[in-house]
Amino acid sequence: MSAVGIVVLLVAALGVGYLVGRRSNPRVPTWQQRTSRTVLGRQALVLALLMAVSQVERSTQRRLRPAMRRGAGELRQPAAPVGPSLSGAPNATQCQPDSSVMDICP
């Protein structure tokens, strides 16, 4: 399908959606209705509930994040460095039982 055909279909879909969604006599609430105590109270309650849900999600993610890093309940061992260390001390790959530097290996 060409680009022109896609644009025509998109414009037709937008037009149909506009006509279907349009009301013949839209009733817009007045500012007194929008700012009544019950409406404002309901909006404040919804806002408080959304904030509480957000806090619960954040705390759950904080608790689960370390567990997900560990895997299925097991602690990961840090990887042994490869090659000589900068401090001159032997690393885990150099501390073999047959190594001559075994006396200074941990």
Tally of DSSP helical segments: 3
Q: Strand share of the residues? A: under 5%
Q: What gap, in angstroms, lies between the N and C termini?
A: 71 Å
Largest sheet: none
Percent in helix: 40-55%
Q: How would you sum up the global shape?
A: flat
Structural class: mainly alpha
Low-confidence stretches: none
Q: Please, what is the average pLDDT?
A: 76
Radius of gyration: 33 Å
**How many DSSP E strands?**
0
Helix and strand element order:
HHH
Could you walk me through the main structural features you see in this protein, from its secondary elements to its overall organization?
The protein is mainly α. It has a domain of 33 residues. The chain is 54% helix and 0% strand. It has three helices and no strands. It is flat. The chain starts with a helix and ends in a 36-residue tail after the last helix. 0% of the residues are buried. The mean pLDDT is 76.
Tags for this entry?
mainly alpha; 54% helix
In short:
By secondary structure, this protein is mainly alpha-helical.
